[in-house]
Amino acid sequence: MTIRLAINGYGRIGRCVLRALYQRGLTHSSTTDTPLKIVAINELADDKTIAHLTKFDSTHGPFQGSAQARDGKLWINDEPGITLLHQADISQLPWAELDIDLVLDCSGSGNERDLAEAHLNQGARRFIFSHPATAEVDATIVYGFNHQTLTGLERVISTGSCSTNCLIPVVDTLHRAFGINAGTTWTIHSAMHDQPVLDAYHDTDLRKTRSAFASIIPVDTGLDKGIERFLPELTGKFQSLAMRVPTMNVSAIDCALQLNTEVVADEVNQVLESAAQQRFAGVLGYVNEPVASCDFNHDPRSCIVDASQTRVAEGKLLALHLWFDNEWGYANRMIDVACFWARQWH
Ligand SMILES: NC(=O)c1ccc[n+]([C@@H]2O[C@H](COP(=O)([O-])OP(=O)(O)OC[C@H]3O[C@@H](n4cnc5c(N)ncnc54)[C@H](OP(=O)(O)O)[C@@H]3O)[C@@H](O)[C@H]2O)c1
């Protein structure tokens, strides 16, 4: 069964989704029994720029294939053209005409169920938010942790945030092994498109008026709420902070966890290494080398535990350092969720 996709919002995540689909060979029935075929892209930018930024990417390098805009379509390799739309008004999107099974919303333009319903009203059958949404969505999925709860009856889901996808496999593993009493997390996130290159006005956030490449900038995060959503028994036990740093891609989470059991660092590393090899294989990674953030650029995993940084104070206070490619890892998880969900639709 071919799944007909529309990407709504073709920025960092939208373009990574397209590239990852082609890189993984998921657009062809010769390589998968559930091909994901991109039928349309809705992006406010013009066709020429869309093709240019498909071809060239300062973070992930050149596209492995051909990409050009012609006659209102984006032509990738020798495949049928992808219809290019430029509609801010959802009620003008021709999802019924284009027979869209699934909208991957990578626009960041809202998190309310109503927004997703507006796409369904246009004829799309299902919808995924590329960020945490309000409680009215049918499910919030961290692939590897709870994707198997999808039944196929859902219409609107979210794939959470890149930082939740990074942290949940680790917190879940350690909570099962040792019990977590409380925790604090610090997300160290690469710069994003909502920050200016030089100081500039921002509608709602004074910190985002400051040059992305001049400072370490504290920003708000809802990661503690994200942890509660997936592991309700930890409600009220986490606090989270975040900062943006002047790098283009790859982020990290530092966390301090107060455990219920006394541990030593090697024991914690062994538990995490085994989770990376078994329960969370493909999603969780483990490294014990003197690495730096750029070593994880274009890494498709949600989280890589840096075992060289694991520390324990007084037996129960554990400090961890986790890496993740906030763009490529997350785009791959959106695809994983879409593939799994589509198999439940029949
Ligand atoms: N980047 C990450 O590391 C990351 C990781 C995980 C999740 N996310 C989430 O993914 C979403 C997108 O993030 P991003 O980093 O890809 O942002 P981005 O690079 O700014 O991409 C968003 C794109 O959507 C376009 N757009 C905005 N409103 C639209 C609308 N109504 N219809 C169609 N297109 C619209 C934007 O155009 P304009 O530029 O013209 O506004 C932009 O090209 C956000 O919700 C973000 O939280 C991002």
From TrEMBL:
Superkingdom, taxonomy of origin: Bacteria
Statement: the UniProt record of this protein carries the keyword Oxidoreductase: yes
Molecular function terms, GO-annotated: NAD binding; oxidoreductase activity, acting on the aldehyde or oxo group of donors, NAD or NADP as acceptor
Annotated residues for binding of NAD(+): 12-13, 130, 326
InterPro entries registered for this protein in UniProt: GlycerAld/Erythrose_P_DH (IPR020831), GlycerAld_3-P_DH_cat (IPR020829), GlycerAld_3-P_DH_NAD(P)-bd (IPR020828), NAD(P)-bd_dom_sf (IPR036291)
Site (Activates thiol group during catalysis): 189
Keyword Oxidoreductase: yes
Family classification: Belongs to the glyceraldehyde-3-phosphate dehydrogenase family.
Assembly: Homotetramer.
Protein name listed in UniProt: Erythrose-4-phosphate dehydrogenase
Annotated gene: epd
